[in-house]
Amino acid sequence: MGNFHNNPLPNNHFRKDWQERVKTWFNQPGRKQRRHRNRVKRAAALGARPIKSLRPAVHCQTIRYNMKVREGYGFTLAELKQAGIRKREAGGLGIKVDYRRRNLSEEGLKANVDRLKDYKARIIVFPKRTRRSVLLKKEGKEDDTGKDKRFTRSDVPVKQVDASTYTRSAVPLPAPTHEPPRAITADDRAVNAYETLRAAWQWEKDANKRIQAAKKTDEQ
């Protein structure tokens, strides 16, 4: 570098001994194996608890990927209501809830309701700890009274239920359903989809006007 104007001569400090200040991570593969062993040990200690939370089956976005089915964030309140599950108890059963998602089709609603019912049929729920169980635990004893009062499948006796089979295994996603390609008929050409949707939208928009007009006719 040259010296310009009345500036001082450059004095670059390149002898910083950077090799002594480098931090290495040679234990990263070993830590990865240790975390894996801890996860396996923790999952075995949990018993028959599901491996992961249950999520709904939704379609991907955009016209390019909307034929694929993937797991969404959570179930809607309408899906939980039809499946007979309260929104406050869904979290305790390992079911994710999404308060923002809406159901836009009857097919998607039915698929997720069936998914919830399948999960509900295989799950086994033990009752919460009672005061008696807490006192027995302090005395070093075990409370066996609540083990028979559990919810399980109605068509399978309690003794024959394999907890790992019905609760730990994940509920598979439904297969994507779509109409196979076919030839366009004369009836299809006669129907105007835009006018049909527009008329249905206008009918729903004028619902309040029809209600008010019906009230006036009843008063007269």
Automatic annotation (TrEMBL):
InterPro entries: Ribosomal_eL13. GO terms for cellular component: cytosolic large ribosomal subunit. One of its GO terms (biological process) is translation. GO terms for molecular function: RNA binding; structural constituent of ribosome. Keywords: Ribonucleoprotein, Ribosomal protein. It holds the Pfam family Ribosomal_L13e. PANTHER family: 60S RIBOSOMAL PROTEIN L13, LARGE RIBOSOMAL SUBUNIT PROTEIN EL13. Belongs to the eukaryotic ribosomal protein eL13 family. HAMAP family: Ribosomal_eL13. This is 60S ribosomal protein L13. It comes from Tulasnella calospora MUT 4182. The lineage of its organism: Eukaryota, Fungi, Dikarya, Basidiomycota, Agaricomycotina.
